[in-house]
Amino acid sequence: MGDSNLNSKVKTSGQDPVLKQAEIDYMKIIEQKNRERVQKLQQISKKNRYTGLAIGAGVFSIYMYSILAVKQETFLDDFEEPVKVQQ
Asked: Between the chain's N and C termini, which has fewer beta carbons within 10 Å?
């Protein structure tokens, strides 16, 4: 329905644009810089994951230690009143 209108708005000369060698070299430099940036971001992300896991493991170990330490306490187990000694 509207396909014929789209084709009429696009004007092409029938030739592909020709890039100069300087433009191609510049594109290669930009691509290389982008690859380096992505590699740095991936390394940072990997280090962040390791740091998060280490912090999580530390928190979990402190939590488990505190749970085990509370289980070993016996002074709260005796809820009966002490027997009065009569003399």
From this structure: C
Residue-range definition of the domain harbouring residue 28: 19-70
Mean pLDDT of the chain: 83
Q: Which residues of 8-47 are buried (b: 16+ CB within 10 A; e: fewer)?
A: eeeeeeeeeeeeeeeeeeeeeeeeeeeeeeeeeeeeeeee
As a whole number, mean pLDDT of residues 36-48 equals 97
Put simply, whether the predicted model's pTM sits higher than 0.70 gets the answer no
Tell me the Cα Rg of the chain. Answer: 36
Instruction: Annotate 75-87 with b (16+ C-beta within 10 A) or e (fewer).
Output: eeeeeeeeeeeee
The residue written with tokens 């928190």 in the block is: 59
When pLDDT is averaged across residues 45-52 and rounded to a whole number, the result is 98
* Within a domain: 66: yes
